């Protein structure tokens, strides 16, 4: 599910970039990998090249990757085609034999081919848990030698992969699923902009053109089951001549279609594990009323019309991410995803909650193993389930600890995200201390009603507000004065941006 995307451009020695480097030091973010882990990654690369390849060779299929420009950790490659009937010569299916529909092939990097259980490299991934994204750089889960080279699905490189093949009917519904280890070879590295341009100009070949067709079918099914996809706008802090401006980059339709293929694979993985009786799901209970109430106050602050008879799901689908107020609201919608977690089950005893409320179906993380620890384990469970084999002991031994490890990784990622937003907003407002803005109080502390959170109308900044001994007017418009915008402040208890009633 999406996170808040924040990107910084400009002078590498600008105060904002300097503050981000200081933040990494403050948070204890590792600057590199221990020598023994780097050496082990090098040995793993050599050992993988010398090992017998997977028995299924899919290098004749012209896969392609779709990722933001400059992405180097390419987890997934896909190939889409129409089905003319039967199984198309690919065995192992448990499903429909009818005519028509589509075949989705989704290759996911097989990082388990490089990471030996119990090794120093394995231990390091359990310490890191996820790749951490800062506005100016990333801190990877695996050594770049693996994630950006030997294990990544780079164009014109033969790579081991976990290959998902999902057959859909003419309406986009799943009719058969298979997953196996395979050799694959991507032919092209495309950005979302490349895909959108090819589709819009009619120059896309069938494997690319079908992304729109299948993506739209899956979006319709998502609406039907009550799911919600948040394609979160990217915020960009642009520095020019020592001054900063905040802009939004609205998502392209192709980003949503591509996300639907990943969701489809995660749902197929969840179904496979539930049928097998052992696995790890990504679960999210329905949002509590208080969280939805806060979001309604944010809608009011941003002048987003949300009639009481309109559901949250219907509202989100009606918003225009090219409209800055709507873009800001979509960013705040990610707060409803913060209750998500990982649920382990074994031996056919299913958990009380098996669904992800935003997906409105069972769902599992399995498509980003270069950037997320749990995906390596999910892949092994699904491979064993599809082949009718025993799940490896090293996977079963790690299962019970995974939810806690992933929760700690999410906490760390949230702390990074929150601190980065604070720094970016402080940079944006640093020359406006003393200015008065119009905003709305969208949250108020229960035990200290004189403190809370204010959402400005413009720029779309969310900041802490401290009153003058009077209770803050929750949900009401309020003129506020900026009293602090200090991007160098290191006290974790003190907000970098602070407002007071004007």
Describe the structure.
With 502 residues, the chain is of the alpha+beta class. The chain is 35% helix and 23% strand. It has 13 helices and 18 strands. The strands form five sheets. Strands 2, 3, 4, 5, 8 and 9 form a six-stranded mixed beta sheet that branches. A hairpin with a 5-residue loop joins β8 (158-168) and β9. α5 (192-201) crosses α7 (253-276), α6 crosses α7 and α7 (253-276) packs across α11. Residues 86-98 have low confidence and may be disordered.
Task: Describe, in short, the structure shown.
The chain is α+β, with helices and mostly antiparallel strands and 502 residues long.
By DSSP (H or I, 4+ residues per run), the number of helices equals 13
Q: Please give the share of residues in helix.
A: 25-40%
- The quaternary state of the protein chains shown equals single chain
Strand content: 15-25%
Instruction: State the distance separating the first and last CA atoms.
Output: 38 Å
**Uncertain segments:** 86-98
| Major beta-sheet overview | 6 strands, mixed
Number of strands: 18
The helix/strand class is alpha+beta
Radius of gyration: 24 Å
Mean pLDDT, rounded to whole units? 88
Give the overall silhouette.
globular
Compile the SSE list and pairings.
Layout: E1 5-9, H1 15-26, H2 35-50, E2 56-57, E3 63-66, E4 76-82, E5 102-109, H3 120-128, E6 132-133, E7 138-139, H4 144-150, E8 158-168, E9 174-190, H5 192-201, H6 206-225, E10 234-240, E11 243-249, H7 253-276, E12 279-283, H8 289-301, H9 312-318, H10 324-333, E13 341-345, H11 374-387, H12 393-399, H13 402-429, E14 436-444, E15 451-456, E16 462-466, E17 477-485, E18 497-501
Parallel strand pairs: 1-10, 2-9, 3-9, 16-18
Antiparallel strand pairs: 4-5, 5-8, 6-7, 8-9, 10-11, 12-13, 14-15, 14-17, 15-16, 17-18
Helix pairs in contact: 1-13, 5-7, 6-7, 7-11
């Amino acid at each position: 599910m999406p996170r808040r995307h924040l990107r910084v451009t400009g002078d590498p020695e600008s105060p904002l970039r300097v503050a981000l480097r200081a933040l990494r030091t403050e948070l204890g973010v590792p600057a590199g990998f221990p020598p023994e882990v780097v050496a082990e990654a090098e040995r793993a690369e050599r050992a993988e090249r010398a090992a017998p390849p997977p028995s299924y060779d899919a290098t004749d299929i012209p896969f392609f990757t779709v990722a933001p420009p400059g992405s180097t950790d390419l987890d997934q490659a896909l190939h889409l085609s129409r089905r003319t009937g039967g199984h198309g010569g690919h065995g192992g299916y448990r499903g429909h034999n009818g005519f028509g529909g589509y075949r989705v092939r989704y290759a996911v990097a097989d990082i388990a081919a490089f990471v030996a259980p119990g090794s120093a490299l394995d231990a390091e991934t359990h310490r890191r848990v996820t790749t951490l994204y800062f506005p100016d750089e990333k801190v990877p889960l695996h050594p770049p030698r693996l994630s950006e080279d030997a294990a990544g699905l780079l164009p014109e490189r033969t790579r081991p992969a976990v290959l998902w093949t999902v057959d859909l009917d003419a309406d986009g519904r799943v009719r058969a699923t298979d997953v196996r280890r395979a050799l694959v070879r991507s032919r092209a590295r495309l950005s979302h902009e490349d895909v959108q341009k090819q589709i819009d100009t009619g120059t896309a070949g069938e494997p690319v053109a079908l992304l729109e067709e299948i993506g739209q079918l899956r979006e319709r099914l998502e609406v039907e089951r009550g799911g919600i996809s948040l394609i979160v706008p990217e915020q960009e802090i642009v520095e020019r001549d020592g001054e900063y401006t905040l802009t939004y980059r609205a998502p392209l339709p192709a980003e949503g279609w591509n996300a639907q293929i990943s969701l489809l694979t995660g749902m197929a993985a969840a179904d496979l594990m539930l049928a097998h009786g052992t696995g790890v799901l990504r679960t999210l209970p329905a949002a509590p009323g208080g969280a939805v109430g806060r979001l309604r106050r944010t809608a009011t602050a941003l002048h987003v019309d949300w009639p009481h008879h309109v559901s949250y799901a219907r509202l989100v689908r009606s918003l225009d991410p090219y409209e800055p107020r709507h873009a800001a609201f979509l960013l705040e919608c990610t707060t409803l995803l913060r209750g998500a977690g990982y649920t382990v089950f074994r031996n056919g005893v299913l958990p009380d909650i098996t669904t992800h409320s935003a997906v409105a179906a069972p769902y599992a993380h399995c498509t980003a193993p270069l950037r997320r620890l749990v995906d390596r384990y999910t892949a092994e469970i699904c491979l064993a389930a599809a082949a009718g084999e025993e799940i490896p002991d090293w996977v079963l031994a790690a299962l019970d600890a995974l939810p806690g490890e992933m929760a700690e990784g999410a906490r760390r990622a949230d702390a990074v995200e929150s601190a980065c937003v604070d720094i970016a907003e402080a940079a944006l407002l640093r020359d406006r201390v003393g200015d008065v803005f119009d905003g709305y109080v969208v949250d108020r502390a229960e035990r200290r009603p004189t403190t809370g959170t204010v959402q400005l109308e413009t720029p779309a900044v969310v900041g802490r507000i401290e009153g003058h001994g009077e209770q803050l007017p929750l949900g009401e418009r309020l003129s506020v004065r900026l009293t602090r915008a200090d991007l160098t402040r290191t006290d974790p208890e003190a907000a970098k941006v602070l407002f007071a009633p004007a």
